[in-house]
Amino acid sequence: MTAKIDDVLQAGVARGDVPGIVGMAAGDDGVIYEGAAGKRAADADDPITPDTMLRIASMTKMVTTVAALQQVERVSLELDAPVDTYRPEFADLPVLEGFDGDTPKLRPAGSRATVRQLMTHTAGLAYWFWNSDIDRYEQVTGTPNILPGSDEAFTAPLVADPGTAFEYGINTDWLGKVVETVSGQPLDKYFRANITGPLGMDNTVARMSEAQRADSTPIHVRGDDGGWVVTDIDWAQQPDFWGGGHFLYSTPRDYLTFQRMLLAGGRLGDAQILLDGDTVDAAFTNQIGGLNFPAEISTAHPELSADVNLGPGLKWGLGLLLNEAQQPGMRAAGSGAWAGLFNTHFWIDPTNRVTGAVYSQLLPFAEPRALALYGEFEQALYASR
Fold it and tell me: Per-residue pLDDT tens for 27-64?
C-alpha cells in the first residue's frame, strides 16, 4: 500500500500541482510512512527529501503553545490571567472600528485579553493577509506587519473585543513574548533547552547554517507560463523579536518527532516535554465555546493566500484546529491540525493513533491544487492502514 501513497505524491508533481512534496506519518510504534517526490528547487536537479530544510511558518505556533503550556505546568503562567499581567504594553492596544477617510477609528478594548485567548486566536488580533481592516491600518499608518521583524508590529490594534470572535492573527507572536517574560529566556534558546533539544530535533532552528541553507527548499510561485519559479522570500535574518507564530525552519523528519510527542501525550522516549496528559488532552478540546473557526475566509492578499474554505464544524483547542465530525476516509472527529503559510500541513488523530504531514514550499497558501493533493495524501494513508 505504500506504493499507492508514493503514486499520489508523484502524480501531484507530474501534474504540476507542486514543485516538490514530502509526506510523513507515524503511529504509536514509530514512523509508518515517509516519501517524497519532485525537486528541492525548480531550478535544481537534486530531489526534495524528508531531511530537506523548510520554512514551517505557522507550524511554529504549536511549538510556542507547548512552550507556554510547559510554563503553565511549572506554575509560572496562568492561562486565564490577562496578557498585560506579563506584557504590560498589551494594555495599550485599542480596538480598530473602521476608518474616517484614511484616519483609523480607535476605541478602548471592552475587556482584558487573556493568555488562553492568545492560544485560541480570540484575543482580537488579526493578520493583514486575512483581514482587510488591519491591512488598511498598516498601510495608512506605516505600521509594519510581522514579516520585517520589527517590534513596531506589536503596536497594531485589535479588530474585535477579546473573547467575542475567532480572528486568526499575531496572537502567538504575543504568546512568544509572554513565554520569554516568564521563562527569562529568548524564545529560540527556550525551544532548544526545553523542546527541540530534548527531542533531538537538531534541524529545527531559528536560523539555518550555511550547510542547512544549501539543503533547503526555496519558496516557489507560479510564473507567467504556469510553471514554478524560485523566489528569495525568507524570514528577516536580523529581527527585533523571535516570532512565536512563524520563525522556525525545520525538516519533515524533525517535525514528525514533535507530532509523535503530542500523539503520545507529551512524552517521547526519555524526553518528557509535557508532564500531565491532561495538558495535552486540553489542546485537543474545544476552547472557544460557541465561537467557530470561519467556514470561509476571503483573502486580503491573493499573492499570499487563496480564499480558504475548510467547511463548517471546526473549533479551536490550544494551538490546534479541531474537526468535530469524522472526515470520510480520513481523520477522526477530535483530531487536531494546523498548517504553515508556504503550504506545510500536519494533523494528529488521537482516535486512530496516527499523525501525518505534507510539506511543499510555495505561495499562495491553500493554493487549490496543493490543498487537494494534501487531501489525496491523507486519504491514501488511511486507506493503507
Answer: 999 999 999 999 999 999 999 999 999 999 999 999 99
Q: Are 179 and 16 in contact (CB under 8 A)?
A: no
Annotated catalytic, 86? Answer: no
Contacts of 50 (CB under 8 A, 6+ apart): 22, 24, 34, 36, 251, 252, 253
Q: Say whether 61 is catalytic.
A: yes
Print the domain residue range for 285.
2-383
pTM over 0.90: yes
Q: Which of 58, 183, 335, 360 is catalytic?
A: 58
Return the CATH number at 32: 3.40.710.10
Find all residues with CB under 8 Å of 185, minimum gap 6, and list them. Answer: 193
Structural domains counted in the chain: 1
Whether 255 sits among the annotated catalytic residues: the reply is no
Separation between Cα atoms, residue 66 and residue 57, nearest integer Å: 16
User: Which candidate in 33, 127, 137, 168 is catalytic?
Assistant: 168
Please tell me what DSSP assigns to residue 369.
Answer: H
Those residues whose C-beta lies under 8 Å from the C-beta of residue 380, and which sit 6 or more positions away, are 4, 5, 7, 8
